[in-house]
Amino acid sequence: MVLEKYILAVITMHPDAGIAGLPIFYAKDEQEQNRLANLLEAILDGIAHKISDGVYIIVKH
Amino acid sequence: MSETTIAILLGIGFGTGARIYMLRTDYRSYPTYLHGRIIHILAGFIASALGAVLLPAIVNQDYTAVTFFTVAASQFRDVRNMERNTLLNLDENEIVPRGKTYIEGIALVFEGRNYLVILTAMLTTFSAYYISYWAGLIGGCLGIFLCSRLMSGMKIRDIADIKIVQPHFEDAGLYVGDVYIMNIGLPERQKEILTYGMGFMLIPHNLNGKVNLANFGQRQAILHDLYMGLGIYRDSGTPALTPLAKRNMDTGALAVFMLPRDHDEEWARFVIGNVPVLESAYRYMSSKKKNRLENQGE
Fold first, then answer.
1. Which residue of B has its CA nearest to A40?
2. How many CB pairs under 8 A join A and B?
3. pLDDT band at B297 (very low <50, low <70, confident <90, very high)
4. DSSP secondary structure of chain B
5. Closest approach of chain A CAs to the CA of B104, in angstroms?
6. What is d(CA B57, CA A32) in angstroms, rounded to the nearest whole number?
7. Most CB within 10 Å of its CB: which of B5, B41, B112, B271?
8. Any A CB within 8 A of B169 CB
9. pLDDT at B291
């Protein structure tokens, strides 16, 4: 089986959200979160998807 | 010059003329200007020479020549292979690829048109040989007319209505009309999409159209032609700006999203309507259903 989509990183403002098993980037505010998501999107060639307020995932499609 | 020679020359002339007539390079930029065209004009010339000598060969009872004709005609299958290989190689470097179904369709057309050239040349020589030169000229014109009728199939505008719809966001979800396209998290990307994005709704007329628009190859062909006609706002490393086509599963309508350079709505409507309905993607569902029901009634 070939996985076509996979999560490369998580950017969150909630350190206590219980996310594990993935590269996690913590941001202190929305501005930093956007900056990180933007940066990682460009570096990893992925798309930043918003899962909920304060949680972005970078997905490779 | 003997009558046979004149008839053959007329056949070759009209055959090559038919190939040039069918070889149009428009905004889709294929075949490439000059060299790409020369290859096909030459192939057309050979095809017309084959078509033109067939009848005189039969009349002169030169059956070996007729056998060779069948061998030579099979060479035109290589035209399809050549086009397929070239386009598949080029497709890797396209910012919006054509897709395999579209490439197969283009290759099929290139092969088919050579046979149309053979037909035109045969028709011309036949009329010139058996009736008169004038009949040859009329036969040639008839051949070219036939080519013009047979050279192109249906277009998207024949199977669906095209509506222009502005894309919008509901939280992070990007929508074209009521069709969900994808999740775009970053506010910056959302802003770019709202500034440059354009959406289209293709509403199929019947079941055949619905099935055709569901085909991934057909969708990719639409996206590629839109890019060729309107340009695109994207680069490598920006997958969030990838053009996409998604289906409304309830109605069968297709929502197309892309970020063009040219926002001329009239031109966009023309370009999308002018996308060929790919033969290998089209199904005759309605007619099959009708035939079945009619047969059942008998």
1. B237
2. 39
3. low
4. --HHHHHHHHHHHHHHHHHHHH----TT--SPTTHHHHHHHHHHHHHHHHHHHHHHHHHTT-HHHHHHHHHHHHTTHHHHHHHHHHHHHHHTT-SS---HHHHHHHHHHHHHHHHHHHHHHHHHHHHHHHT-HHHHHHHHHHHHHHHHHHS---BHHHHEEEEEE-EEEETTEEEETTEEEEE---HHHHHHHHHH-EEEEEEESSHHHHHHHH-HHHHHHHHHHHHHHH-----TT-GGG--EEEE-TTT--EEEEE--S---HHHHHHHHHTSBPPTTT---HHHHHHHHHHHHH-
5. 25
6. 81
7. B271
8. no
9. 76
- Which of residues B26 and B40 earns the better pLDDT score? B40
pLDDT value for B237: 83
Structure confidence at residue B298 (pLDDT): 53
Question: Considering only CB atoms, which chain B residues are within 8 Å of A50?
Answer: 171-172, 183-185
In single-letter form, the type of residue at position B166 comes to Q
Question: Got the DSSP string for chain A?
Answer: -----EEEEEEES-TTS---SS-EEE-SSHHHHHHHHHHHHHHHT-EEEEEETTEEEEEE-
Mutate to test the interface with B, among A44, A47, A49 (most CBs of B within 10 A): A47
Give the residue from chain B lying closest to A48, CA to CA: B185
Cis peptide before B31 (omega within 30 of 0): yes
**Packing angle, helices B100-130 and B77-91, rounded to 10:** 150
- Model pLDDT for residues B63-95, shown as the tens digit of each residue: 888 888 888 888 888 889 988 999 999 999 999
Which two three-digit tokens encode residue B77?
A: 């299958």
Q: How far is CA B180 from the centre of its chain?
A: 29
Which residues of chain A are within 8 Å of residue B237 when distances are taken between CB atoms? 42, 45
**CA-based R_g, chain A, Å:** 11
Q: What pLDDT, in 10s, does the model give residues B203-248?
A: 999 999 999 999 999 999 999 999 999 999 998 888 899 999 999 9
Mean pLDDT of chain B: 91
